Amino acid sequence: MKLFIDTANIDEIREINDWGVICGVTTNPSLIAKEGRDFKEVIKEISTIVDGPISAEVISLESHGMVEEARELAKIHKNIIIKIPMTKEGLKAVKVLNSEGIKTNVTLVFSPSQALLAAKAGASYVSPFIGRMDDIGNEGMNIIEDIVKIYNNYNISTEVIAASVRHPMHVLEAAKAGSHIATIPYKVFEQMVKHPMTDLGIERFLKDWEGVDSK
Ligand code: E4P
After folding, report:
1. Looking at the predicted complex, does its ipTM rise above 0.90?
2. Any idea which residues are catalytic in this one (predicted)?
């Protein structure tokens, strides 16, 4: 499973990219707004750090507007993936963009049938939102399992991005379900890397090393 970082914060992207564990970035309008900077500038800067798919989301709600925004965003860098909301207008935009060779990530996916339609329209990626499903009392991970199964049944090349990840268990469950990608917030990467036994082990090694003559 590939790992992306889900943030628009440059420091967070640099740090996790330096760990060598990510090969893509996802952003959304809320994450961009938190940075208080020009949207295109942020996306451009991200593309100088990570050499992989970088999702940038459109704001228009009708297909023509989405396509126009997408064409502009796609000019920023060859790695830009256009995030399109899962609506009828969104599907129309995906169809047009696909015919122009512009890759899309259909976002705000909450059901396997939405994911099937997105793939049929020509989406390169779909983003089912696990955490937000859990929030309303559903088992978010079931959607990942179902979508992976459906795509595998028909050799569909659209990749599943497990999104709205809230904790390390989401990442592990997504990997077990066969998700192609998980997009992970910085905080969750920090949680994944830590283990008290690792810290204790280092502490003991260093203490024992005090008694060694290493000159
Ligand atoms: C994914 O592409 C979205 O940006 C993100 O995962 C949404 O996560 P949230 O539900 O924590 O806002």
Report:
1. yes
2. 83 (schiff-base intermediate with substrate)
